[in-house]
């Protein structure tokens, strides 16, 4: 009798369109393992990511707004959940491997810093090797998780994670879906959060964008997802027609001008560098101050690299609390 994994692999051969990545054809893991009887290799990767400590910390990491007042602003985790759903919808409609798509989406932002992109820019200045969150996401799954052993994910998931932004291109259509879903998610939900914060109104969105993709959040997202699906059905590739792609670029530029560089939304970001710089200086001065699992990495990597790993994994609150513990006299703290 066949195993549940074998039956799922056979279902993929029936359901997936040409060009999709089949689980049975994966290029495998860095360290070979016995296959699971129940789950395909990509299903197994999903579970490893979702059960990781790095994933759990995403719920306390900034998406755009630093420590917003209110329960409904996106965090890095809720952003990831939205990317997963958008990517899986597109992947299913195009007959791609939904499990591979989902695994890449769950893992794409594991390497994000505290304080969102402000933290990423700060660590890029502080880390001698530079810092990019997509590369750190790959380092998390390859090295940092499970006390330095990593998660030993499949090649295709690792490739999709590191290529979800930047100059590279994922080797699978599923990885390319996640890259596009990530962009559609953030430009839409960041507008929603900016409206909630009083920085924008729906009417501030340029008229040509509203007329093309919709005046409301759900309309815009639905229009853009349909555009990706229709393009994929016509061409067999992941993308959009040039005119719709140009609208997305204008939408992206509008968000940068009005939200991502908005002095109200970003007024506290100048403090981020000071916090991370202070933490970096403190741990570099005495590497024995690092937690045991990070000290163990010093046998394989340089001190500055490991300090950067530790700081980048912190949540916003943990970074602030640790900075206060180190630098603020107890008598001055307000509790």
Give an overview in words.
- It is a single chain.
- The chain has 335 residues and is mainly α.
- The protein has two domains: 42-260, Hypothetical protein af1432 (Orthogonal Bundle); 270-332, no CATH class.
- It has helices spanning 4-15, 41-50, 53-57, 76-93, 98-107, 116-126, 133-148, 155-162, 173-196, 207-213, 217-235, 242-260, 270-285, 292-295, 303-312, 316-327.
- The relative contact order is 0.12.
Short account of what is shown:
This protein is an all-alpha fold.
CATH class of the largest domain: Mainly Alpha
Distance between the termini: 63 Å
Any guess at the CATH architecture of the largest domain?
Orthogonal Bundle
Task: Indicate how many domains the architecture comprises.
Answer: 2
Oligomer: single chain
Q: Which H/E pattern describes the elements?
A: HHHHHHHHHHHHHHHH
Q: Low-confidence runs (pLDDT<50, min 5 residues)?
A: none
Can you give the mean pLDDT?
92
Shape, per Cα inertia axes: flat
Instruction: State the share of residues found in helices, binned by percent.
Output: 55-70%
Major β-sheet annotation: none
Q: Return the CATH topology of the largest domain.
A: Hypothetical protein af1432
């Amino acid at each position: 009798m066949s195993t549940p994994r074998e039956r799922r692999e056979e279902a993929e051969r029936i359901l997936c369109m040409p060009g999709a990545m089949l689980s049975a054809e994966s290029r495998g893991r860095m360290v070979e393992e016995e296959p699971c009887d129940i789950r395909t290799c990509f299903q197994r990767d999903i579970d490893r990511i979702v059960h990781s400590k790095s994933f759990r910390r995403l719920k306390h990491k900034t998406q755009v707004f630093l420590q917003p007042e209110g329960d409904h602003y996106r965090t890095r985790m809720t952003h990831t959940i939205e990317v997963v759903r958008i990517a899986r919808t597109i992947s299913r409609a195009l007959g791609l491997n939904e499990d591979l798509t989902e695994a890449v989406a769950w893992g794409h932002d594991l390497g994000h810093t505290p304080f969102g992109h402000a933290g990423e820019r700060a660590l890029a200045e502080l880390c001698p090797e530079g810092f990019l969150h997509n590369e750190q996401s790959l380092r998390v799954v390859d090295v940092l998780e499970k006390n330095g052993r990593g998660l030993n994910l499949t090649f295709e998931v690792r490739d999709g994670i590191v290529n979800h932004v930047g100059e590279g291109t994922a080797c699978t259509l599923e990885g390319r879906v996640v890259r596009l879903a990530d962009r559609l998610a953030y430009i839409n939900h960041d507008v929603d959060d900016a409206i909630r914060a009083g920085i924008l109104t729906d009417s501030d969105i340029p008229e040509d964008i509203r007329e093309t993709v919709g005046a409301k959040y759900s309309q815009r997202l639905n229009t853009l997802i349909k555009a990706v699906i229709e393009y994929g059905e016509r061409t067999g590739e992941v993308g959009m027609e040039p005119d719709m792609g140009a609208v997305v670029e204008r939408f992206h530029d509008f968000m940068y001008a009005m939200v991502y560089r908005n002095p109200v939304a970003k007024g506290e970001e100048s403090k981020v560098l000071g916090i991370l710089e202070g933490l970096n200086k403190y741990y570099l001065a005495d590497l024995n101050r690092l937690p045991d699992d990070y000290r163990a990495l010093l046998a394989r990597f340089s001190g500055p690299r490991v300090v950067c790993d530790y700081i980048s994994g912190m949540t916003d609150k943990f970074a602030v609390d640790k900075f206060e513990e180190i630098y603020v006299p107890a008598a001055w703290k307000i509790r």
